[in-house]
Amino acid sequence: MTPLADALLSILPTDVLPRYLERWIVGETPLSTWPAVTTALASYLAIIFGIQELMRDRSPQQLNALFRIHNAFLSVGSLILLALMIEEVASIWFSSDAFSAICATQSWTPKLEFYYMINYYFKYIELLDTVFLALKKKPLAFLHVFHHSATALLCFTQLNGKTSISWVVISLNLFVHVVMYYYYYATAGGAKIWWKKYLTTLQIVQFIIDLFVVYYGTYQHFTHTYWPWIPHVDNCAGTESAAIMGCCLLSSYLVLFINFYIQTYKKPIKAKKAVVNGHGTTNGVANG
After folding, report:
1. Residues whose CB is less than 8 angstroms from the CB of residue 78 and which lie 6 or more positions away in sequence, other chains included
2. pLDDT digits (tens, 9 = 90+) for 182-208
3. 234 found inside a domain
4. What pTM, to 2 d.p., does this model score?
């Protein structure tokens, strides 16, 4: 039973979508090949550093209304997508068990694949975060630029690899983004929010949970495939390259965000330099 998805399907003209927009078809679905993705991400880097150079002798742009619309869209969009994913995952979980819901091939359903695709395209919309940053003449922090580009790459590899465990990582990320983009929307409107430090903590907790689940699934796959005598439950669906990419990138995120937290909140006040967040203000929140 997926009443929310069914209600949306009853009012949205999804029947007119071409098949390559409903399902992940490598070579047909937009941004579904390595050349397309690497070109897009290289263009992202060229654009943001090009804007940074262009703005060198110009006054910072405010763009507050556009900035708030951008953040409101991503917060609300993340909330709707999260609700749809929870609904679909719940129907899978109740008809099987926890391990199957995370690792079984059957857990890669057509609906979840479609939701993963929407989430993937969200990652390209989120690249506008950096455009705003550059137009406001704020420093382009390594954490921000790396995280944005690497996350688009991560989502691409997991779609290609059909990793059944994807919903865990994506759901947590969507939850964080609901809160995070609301934070940016509210503070851009002048709101004084006291819990910015806890938002960074939430981001770190997200990656810890991600890594526990992803390493667990990777362990299950490799032991089942190569070392079946080692204690394990069963295979975890997905390609090995996608699993390794997931482990590496998520591990790097955790290290970078912990470092960001230490630099922002733990250094002595006199020695602490202003740490610029993902949107270019010194409020101690990184993009997650």
Report:
1. 122, 174, 175, 177, 178, 181
2. 999 999 988 888 888 899 999 999 999
3. yes
4. 0.91
